[in-house]
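Hey L., structure's done. Input below.
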Amino acid sequence: MNTLFIHQNFPSQFTHLAAALARRGNRVVGLGLSPQAVPGVEVMAYTLSQHPHPALDGLLQESASNTLRGEGAALAALQLKEQGFAPDLVCVHPGWGEAFFLRDIFPKSRILCYLEYYYHAFGADSNFDPEFPHQSYPQRFHLRMKNTPFLHALETMDRGVCPTAWQKSLFPACYRDRIEVIHDGIDTTAVRPSAQVVVTLKRDNLTLTPDDEVVTYVARSLEPSRGYHIFMRALPELLGRRPKAHVLIVGDHTTSYSPRPVDGRSYKDIYLNEVAAQLDMSRVHFLGKLRYAQFLAILQVSTAHVYLTVPFVLSWSVIEAMSAGCLLVGSATPPVREVIRHGENGLLFDYFSPSHLADTVATALERRDEMLPLRQQARRTAVERYDLETVCLPRQFKLIEDLLFSP
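Output:
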């Protein structure tokens, strides 16, 4: 079987599936703007014929950027076709326009779209947190334009795949019967609890083990979309109640999903400065971006792992933390509630209440021995529902088989 994967940041969500198909002896090609190597996969970069003119207004910039990426991906696909490559299956993330013209290049190929998120002005991430201004009409127009590549893909795809049921529910109802809910998968054999792990913070002259009292928070970027401001506001009460606790914060100081602060500062500094005078900063540790092995060690040493998000895409780190046997303390927002069941495999709190978060974590630390069944059930949930080799890849293979051989 010949398979073409297309993602602006290949391999991204296709990492495991592309490698697994290559291991099975299939020819697999990965296409992206700056593709990264994957074992057994041929990678190819597509290029843009031009960039949108800077004089275009915001809505036209969005449309032009997506169209140019679609053109670039299509021309690279055409080059592959002219070289004799005929994919049986095309797997594409359409969010940046790469799927626009694929049906024209490969009319007989089956197209499987990775449908990550469909934007809404209300009812999801936008206009969720009243602390931040509601979207203006031009900003709402921008959200609608961000859905344009998905609408094209929904019309031309054979099937779609979405990592959570809640994310699927955001897509137009008329297309949902062609969308499967399958998570990307976590290697629960590699990501597992360890009683022997040791984390050394040389800068702070600190060594931590699972016997210490450690609160962890992880996000790609420290920003309001992932509740960083709520987390920081909970720390004065939490650290006041737990004088031996250390807080490890992992994440970049840039932005990924939230708009950039208008004053040029980082959200990290804005919300740290808001509470810094109330904190013992010798117990608050900003670790920045970590290598994966370091990230896993942070999870393995964690006594309580806090995850917040507005209603948005579920982070891989949630399932990784559960797989590592963390006590998950999560915001009661979708799609977190789809994964964490309060009092069974984790604890939930009111997203808008720093005090509720602080009390939930402080109580969990105080009763850490009583939390062991929740940690064990969190690990079981990760293994039974999200394991890469035994659950997610088999379901992805079954979807591909059905797609290729169904009428």
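The mean pLDDT is 96. The chain is about 40% helix and 15% strand.

-- N.
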